[in-house]
Amino acid sequence: MKSFNIFGPEFKANPHPVYADMRAECPLYGRLLADGSTTIWFVTRYADVEAILRDHQTFVKDLRSTMTEEELASYPEQPPQIRLLANHMVNMDPPNHTRLRSLVNKVFTSQRVEALRPRVQAIADELIDQVASRGRMDLIDEYALPLPIRVITQLLGIPTADSRRFHTWSHAFVTSAATTQRSQKKLARAGRMIDDFTSYMSSLFALRRAEPQDDLISSLLQAEEAGDKLTEEELFSMVILLVVSGHETVANTIGNGMLALLQYPDQRTRLQADPTLIESAVEEMMRYDGSMERATLRFAAKDITMGNQTIQRGDAVSLVLGAANRDPEIYNNPDHFDITRYQAAHCKRHMGLGWGIHYCLGAQLGRMEVAIAVNTLLQRLPTIALDIEPSNLRWRSIPVVRSMVHLPVRWS
Fold first, then answer.
1. Angle, alpha carbons 171-176-182 (nearest 5°)
2. Closest Cα to residue 291, out of 398, 154, 180?
């Protein structure tokens, strides 16, 4: 089987030529993990990715769902730190996933999200006010990251003064959860972060139990479905999930989307002239260079043949969303950034927010934040431009995430 280089800084800078080769030559690409016995399959065609996302019975999120009773009996217990990071509903299968999703759906409502719109706009304006006279900024550190962390912490009911702490925790949790190389040093650091986080949240939970507020944490504490409530560990994991998914992914979409607009001046000019195009533009940003390059892992619950490959029970499956979103079998001229693409009724939905039972819980909030963030930048800083050569941009090395370290911009 042909080998593909899907790691390293050169690949991260522009993975799409490699993904195009994988789609054409080996759409189900298998390679052994470091243990020498477990195979991971990288799936790159849109049709295959869609089929797997829809089939949550064959392709499960919890490796234990693939095991026999004998295998389960010998399966090592997860360290507490990893359990808190990983045992949330994104990594669960029914019925556990169904139970948690139902509880959270009761409190993460469309009305609650829409009520945040004025605050999101105010935060975007405040952040631009802080840098407008300077003529330049790092769009990642000074805009794309602080906006969604302030939004999600406010939604949860966390004091604005503590939002920076949650950014630090979120970044550490993403890095720890995404890497398979968990050295003792990394586990120790994750442990310290988890201890700080759980200590802070335990105090906040106690305050909200005593005096509930109009915030998401109070609602989560009170949520109940058929006599069932979230356990303390589930509460910790749920807050981690909401902070990471409501912060990292939104920030990356803002950054990647603005980079695309700045590299396609005709599209940027068109959106500035007609801000009503923003909804279609946000969908195209998620398709063209979405924040999640690959979905979180799934595992084959049974042997299954796809194409000319057999995926065996227990094999890991990595859905390459970045490749599926540029499949020429689905999209016309897929490597071109076109903000009007999603105005066409026949345009297939992108994979940036998932599909099926694991479809992104915060999709409505994320779309709103990106739309406000991008339109506000373009309207208030109309001459915004890159302040760095694109070839000098550094991309984070986390495998599943597509994000820049910094994005210097300037304006006059």
1. 155
2. 398
Give the burial class of 283: count Cβ atoms within 10 A of its Cβ; 0-12 exposed, 13-18 middle, 19 or more buried: buried
Average pLDDT for residues 374-384, to the nearest whole number? 98
Query: Torsion over CA of 9, 12, 13 and 15, rounded to 10 degrees?
Result: 130
DSSP string, 21-40: HHHHH-SEEEEE-TTSS-EE
Classified as helix, coil or strand, 172 is helix
Q: Which residues pair with 31 in a beta bridge?
A: 40
Report in angstroms the alpha-carbon separations of 40 from 19, 123, 315: 16, 42, 6
Q: Which amino acid is at 319?
A: L
Greatest alpha-carbon span in the chain: 67
Task: Please report the pLDDT score of residue 237 as a whole number.
Answer: 86
Backbone φ, ψ for residue 192 (5° rounding): -65, -40
Q: What are 52's two structure tokens?
A: 């797997």
Integer-rounded Cα radius of gyration of the chain: 21
Q: HSE, CB side, 13 Å, CA atoms: give it for residue 224.
A: 4
Q: What is the value of pTM for the model shown?
A: 0.92
Cis peptide before 265 (omega within 30 of 0): no
Contact between residue 405 and residue 289 where contact means Cβ atoms under 8 Å apart: no
Amino acid identity for residue 397 in this structure: S
Q: What gap in Å lies between CA 169 and CA 190, rounded to an integer?
A: 9
Burial 300-332 (b: 16+ CB within 10 A, else e): bbeebebeeeebeebbbbbbbbbbbbbbeebbe
Question: Using CA atoms, how far apart are residues 180 and 188, in angstroms rounded to an integer?
Answer: 15
List pLDDT tens digits, range 70-109: 999 998 887 776 677 777 888 899 999 999 898 888 888 8
Q: Where are the strands (E) in 251-403, listed by range?
A: 298-300, 304-306, 309-311, 316-319, 385-386
Angle of the 146-156 helix axis to the 163-178 helix axis, nearest 10: 100
